[in-house]
Amino acid sequence: MHQLLQRYAQLHSYDVDQVQHHVAQVLCPHHLKINNASQLNTHLYYRASQRLGWGRLRYGATVHIQPQPLTDFYLLQIPIQGHEKIQLSHQSFYYSSQRASLLNPNQMFSMQHSQHTDKLFIRICKTSLEHFFQKHYQRPLQGELLFTPVLALDQGAGASLWRLLQWQFQEASEGSWFEQAQTQRQLEDTFFACLLDVWEHNQLLPSIQTLTPHAIKQAKDYIHQHLTEPLSVTRIAQHVGISTRSLYAGFKDFVGISPMQYVKKQRLHDVHQRLLQADPQRHTVTELALLAGFSHLGQFAADYQRLYGVRPSVTLQQNA
């Protein structure tokens, strides 16, 4: 965990003004005060995707931060070492590796980092999250979306969210999925859906619509008809006329896997048939994989071998 985002180093500095200026560029303007007995040794790592920013920050000193209110983003923070204190109005919250904090836009707050605090953070675009909420639940927001400040990560749904975050941080750090526009959007959507379903907020959620086998068949038929096109859970749900939340639940109940796992399974079957029938002198694995709707070829090859026991090139060469 302490090596995450090393490829995306933004800053290493001992200078207060430089640190304050650079962190303000990534997050927001703030006043940074250092404990008299401490000296800064700040490391900042940051990678921005389309709607999220994945970061890791260590000040290397005991510091007190008085930020201006966040304007256009939410800020999720998880110390992976040390601890942090957040002051909200008349309430104080301590959190560490087993508790995450989430700060809302336009909220007055201050923070104190311990000398050894090393934290992960996610900068969440406010308009993107609001837009996703309305599509995910098929209903408008009732006022501003506001989250509770702290969530336990060592139990229940919070533990599930933490496992997802660890995987996505690893992928943002070392993987290549965030380099593919379609896959990046799917990963962001997965994060948004989990955050909204798990973290307590002030919006009244509708009950999950119970899907009939006919609705699931409609979704499957749509997937099969558009298998080679860019597909998303949102697009499939809009065709059936339900929320993405209900689509997830329906596939879990009737199919046993998520909608996008079903899409991948069908694409693997499709490309397998193409490979079995293709002339290796005229076609390549890459060409056939792209025709079947795959965009991440390295992941396709790994998934294909896991399912069929051989590399896709071996299947193609069997026709020689």
From TrEMBL:
A Pfam family that the UniProt record links to this protein: AraC_binding_2
Gene3D superfamilies named in the record: Homeodomain-like
SMART domains, sorted: HTH_ARAC
Domain HTH araC/xylS-type: 217-318
Source taxon at top rank: Bacteria
Keywords linked to the UniProt accession: DNA-binding, Transcription, Transcription regulation
InterPro entries given in the database record: AraC-bd_2, AraC_XylS_family_regulators, Homeodomain-like_sf, HTH_AraC
Annotated PANTHER family: HTH-TYPE DNA-BINDING TRANSCRIPTIONAL ACTIVATOR EUTR (PTHR46796:SF12), HTH-TYPE TRANSCRIPTIONAL ACTIVATOR RHAS-RELATED (PTHR46796)
Name of the protein in question: AraC family transcriptional regulator
Native source organism of the sequence: Paenalcaligenes hermetiae
Lineage summary: Bacteria, Pseudomonadati, Pseudomonadota, Betaproteobacteria, Burkholderiales
